[in-house]
Amino acid sequence: MPKSISLQIDTTKCVSRLSPFLFGHFIENMYDCIDPGLHAQLLTSRGFEYPDSNKDGVSDPWFLVGHGEYSIDRTRSISPSNSQRIKCGLKNGFCGISQNGLALHELETYIGSFWIYAETNALVEVQVLTEDNAAVYAGTFSTDIDKWTKQVFHFTSLKEQCARILFLVHGTAEIWLDQVSLSPQNAPCKVWPNVLSYIKNLNPTILRFPGGCFADCYHWMDGIGDPDLRPARPNLHWGGTEENGFGTDEFLTLCSEIGAEPMICVNFGSGTLEEAAAWVEYCNGPADSRYGALRAANGHAAPYGVKYWDIGNEAFAEWEIGHCDADAYCEKFQQFATAMRQIDSGIKLIACGGDGNSSDQSWNETLCQQLGNTADYLGIHNYTPLTGKKFADPKLQYYAVAAAPVQYELRMRETQQVLQSYPGQMMLAVTEWNCNYQDGTEQEQTMEAAICNAGMLNAFIRMGSAVQISMISDLINGWPGGIIRSRNGYCYGTPSYYVLTMYAQARPTSLLSCQYDSPDYAATEVGNLKAFPHIPYLDIAACKTEDERICVFIVNRNLDSAYTIELPEDLVATSIYTLTAENFHAKNTQDRETITPHNTVGSFKCIEVLPCSVNKVYIA
């Protein structure tokens, strides 16, 4: 028989108001987060900016087709980067380039385009072929002499299929190609439709961009205007090449589409205060201001009204571009804040707090002393367990990771005490958090991580108004912690994704007091988590929702035992959502998305809470 636990809830008194921004998200130009995880673009190296690793004269991942002369031309291009030169020397021959692995969706219409230049008349053939060489599309285009010309084509895929695209030159001719593109016609705000649907399901309230560490090497003007004319840049933090097809306007259009407040992190590490102020003016300035006029010319006359601005990212850390000590950060922050608020005095500024994984509050104390009346929020990051290698005992690791929210709640309360001990206006924001193992096993996508992350959400709820913003990292791909896994326009949610949907869709607005007694266990030291003697198996948070319903979130950390939650006499459960799995290391996949919430509707005086589960219970 499951052990019975008596739950008492005071439904008459609001302990604290809850911020609408507790269920925020974060995207960054990190590996495959934005390209290709979010951005609906089938082709890679559109402007031939990726390296030519095999020295065949063609940018990766393009391949040679036929025999000809190939070179990457850095002197003749439509964009500020490269073009691909192709020369065919055979009168009756052909040559060209191809890119493979294009996933075409059934009945999806695609829009393709490319820029072409030639010094003499030439014909370019575009083919889209299936793996068995069946034609999906074929078209021939002529060139204008000594002039770059943009060509556009359309086709519809009649079924799900994998294809490749070819650009071919016939006869004796020499051409230059640049900014080739292929994207689905049905891609609101340039985002994969399937991915956009998954994002909307999260009810996101705030979204941070473009980093993260990348923010400190990003120059925002690289990502505005005609995408074909944007420069490609090396990603100086995460490596690779950024083609800048998804920039400020695309991000803000996405925020509008999903109903999320945007947060922009400015380049503190390698940028200037003038660059940051200009970004504020581009987003918020009137259409007759210098950068507001540029925004209007790019198709958005009305100001976006971006309210939240993050100044720097992890500036305390040696890995961060432009890292510094706390005093230097405060001095530079004041300069940035002054310049940015001269453009828009109504913006809210987030200061970069100290290491959220550390109990050392000295950095935060310095910021409170010097920035208490300048910054609006102190932003910290929480990642755990950071083992760096596979832990020897998976079960001990599970119980340690499941216990992490207990330690992090204590640490957040310590940080809140620092904020309260100094005069000023700063409030706490957790602008990045998630499980992060750093061991190459992708355990971030398991039920274990979901149990931990549900506990973190309960901790944020219990913190009440003390935590004003929280953002799980990342929203899509990027690293193994991305809660939406996206590839080729297809996607699925991790168990942690479904935890976020359970909480965010409830829309809690106020914290209620609840009491219960839970059995406990001792957690082992794992990674950056200390040993902890008393961790309750049950973690319960009660709240009222936007529509005045009582909602209780219950996390059962116990792998072996279920519990029966007995409700007060005057209350009954009417709807119970349960997320669980066959074991704690289970994951969802593209083909098998089975770890999803199951809803039971009725009238229940008792709630059975399964082992290793996350539960959302509506009570009347």
Q: Give the overall form.
A: globular
User: Structural class from helices and strands?
Assistant: alpha/beta
The span between the termini is: 26 Å
User: What is the number of helices?
Assistant: 10
Number of strands: 34
Strand order of the largest sheet: 3-14-17-18-19-20-21-22
Give start-end ranges of low-pLDDT stretches: none
The value of Rg in angstroms is: 27 Å
Quick check: average pLDDT?
96
Fraction in helix: 10-25%
Amount of beta strand? 35-45%
Q: Summarize the main sheet.
A: 8 strands, parallel, barrel
Could you characterize the architecture of this molecule?
A hairpin with a 4-residue loop joins β28 and β29. The strands form eight sheets. Strands 3-14-17-18-19-20-21-22 form an eight-stranded parallel beta barrel, surrounded by five helices. The chain has a seven-stranded antiparallel β-sheet with strand order 2-25-28-29-34-31-32, with helices on one face. It has a five-stranded antiparallel β-sheet with strand order 4-7-12-9-10, with no helix packed on it. α4 runs parallel beside α6, α8 runs parallel beside α9 and α9 packs parallel to α10. By secondary structure, it is of the alpha/beta class. It is built from ten helices and 34 strands.
Write the layout of secondary structure elements.
Blueprint lengths: L2 E4 L1 E10 L6 E3 L6 H6 L24 E4 L2 E5 L9 E6 L5 E11 L3 E11 L4 E8 L4 E8 L6 E9 L3 E10 L2 E12 L8 H8 L5 E4 L23 E2 L6 E2 L5 H11 L2 E6 L6 H12 L5 H8 L10 E4 L14 H18 L4 E5 L9 H10 L5 E9 L8 H27 L6 E10 L10 H17 L3 E6 L11 E4 L2 E4 L1 H12 L1 E8 L4 E4 L8 E5 L1 E8 L4 E7 L6 E4 L6 E7 L18 E7 L1 E4 L3 E7 L1
Parallel strand pairs: 1-30, 3-14, 3-22, 14-17, 17-18, 18-19, 19-20, 20-21, 21-22
Antiparallel strand pairs: 2-25, 4-7, 5-6, 6-13, 7-12, 8-11, 8-13, 9-10, 9-12, 15-16, 23-24, 25-28, 26-27, 28-29, 29-34, 30-33, 31-32, 31-34
